[in-house]
Amino acid sequence: MGKPTLDKDLKKVVHIEKAAESLGRSLAKPGLLAVFMAACIAVASHFIDESSHASLVITAAVIAAYMALNIGANDVANNMGPAVGSRVLSMSGAIAIAALCEVSGAILAGGDVVSTVAKDLLVTDHGLKTISFIHIMIAALLAASLWTHLATYLGAPVSTTHAIVGGVMGSGTMAAGFDAVNWSVMGRISASWVISPAAGGLIAAMLLGLIKWLIIYRQDRVAAAQRWVPPLVALMSGVFAMYIVSKGLQRVWTPSTVAVLAFGLAFFAFGFAITAPWINRRAAVIPNTRKAIAQCFTIPLIFAVGLLSFAHGANDVANAVGPLAAIVSAAQAGTNADQDVALPLWVLAIGAFGISLGLTLFGPKLIRTVGEKITKMDPIRAYCVALSAAVTVLVASAMGLPVSSTHIAIGAVFGVGYLRELLTNKGVPNPAVKPRSVFLEPSSLNRTPQEAVENYQKKEKRRLVRRQHVYGIAAAWVITVPAAALLSAGCYMVMRAVTD
């Protein structure tokens, strides 16, 4: 009797330990969030001068932290998703790389676009009082945060830039009428709804088609990889060098066009010099399969997603701290932010660490959506998505076109998926694969040749892009600005009613 009783007692202890462990995990997220929010309140209270608007600044700091958490949970998935979906990085590895690079980009180079978010969306002579301007920015932050939170919950990657823009538009219009909003800026942003995903998808599809034609569709894939993988990786090195120099380091250095091109050429040569001997060594041992060739793109892809996260942290941190910086400037100066907006380090730190924490706690859901649920990823397709994002931003910036990094990345994922679907269903011949006869199946013996061909093509037609995600994401993109605007207008009305 002693042994069965002991076994039962041990099982009870194990169950208790598992329950305690599960409870600890469930309390970890709220605990970390509470500590982060408390730290934001303490930091804001320490750095803000005593004034009649101090309580509003502290409130804005908490909402900015909430916005940063949502940016980390939603936006960062666009960079990490393809690498995770292609199994190049594990979820924990991707989060670790992204968190480090996002914080580094935000702290070292963040804030260059703060003035756009803080003051360019409203006309200079809007005539708003300081308190009204602060209410506008708080309402915009809160509305953008709530909308991004809802989108993340529903599994829809949206542009947090568009969310904050819609928020400023809604509360600004409610406060001072339609004339207070800079509609020319709004028009350029609206243009990115079409430009960003179309450009990202087209460039990614072209890159994938080029790799298939140069390498995958060759009989001797290994020899083709030896010839073409080094220049392809060198191209990525050069493009990302120009991308980081021109978009990720603008706060610390504004290079000339010649300098940007020089960096691109230098890193192209460097990438080729490093990659060529590495590919030659691999060519001696790898089999002549697509999977083996795809592994040649894994290490370049890891560097690419890290650099994308660095640039994302440098640019999109403004969506969280831009309105907060404007509020701090207005509260301390006693006027609204018509002048250049300063960016205190403590404000930048709230955005940087908030993005990192939001990614860590809530990012996996959207990472899986982008990397696994839209279309199947492998290292080659993920490489095309990453390079497309950098190329599209560079080309659009040179042409003065507004683009959304979120829309570019998702458009690139759709682009590679639709190209795969097109090539598969159109029956584009692959010289590396022996064609199968459609007349060898027993079920086709009693059919005419034309019926056999039509039946085979109908049976083999495949959907390689999940349509429900196409429609859901597109709908979320279209309604982001108006939804954030309406939410912001409502928040502004509530604040005015309470304060009045």
For this entry, give a set of tags.
mainly alpha, 19 helices, 0% strand, 78% helix, 500 residues
Broad shape: globular
Distance between the termini: 76 Å
Ranges with pLDDT <50 over ≥5 residues?
A: 436-446
The gyration radius over C-alpha positions equals 26 Å
Q: What is the number of domains?
A: 1
What is the overall pLDDT average?
Answer: 81
In terms of DSSP E residues, the strand content is: under 5%
Measured as a percent range, the helix fraction is over 70%
Total strands: the figure is: 0
Pairing-aware structural class of the strands and helices? mainly alpha
Order of helices and strands: HHHHHHHHHHHHHHHHHHH
> Largest sheet, described in full?
none
Number of helices: 19
How would you characterize this protein structure?
There is one protein chain. The chain has one domain (38-433, 443-499). The chain is 78% helix and 0% strand. The chain is built from 19 helices and no strands. The longest helix has 46 residues, at 2-47. Residues 436-446 have low confidence and may be disordered.
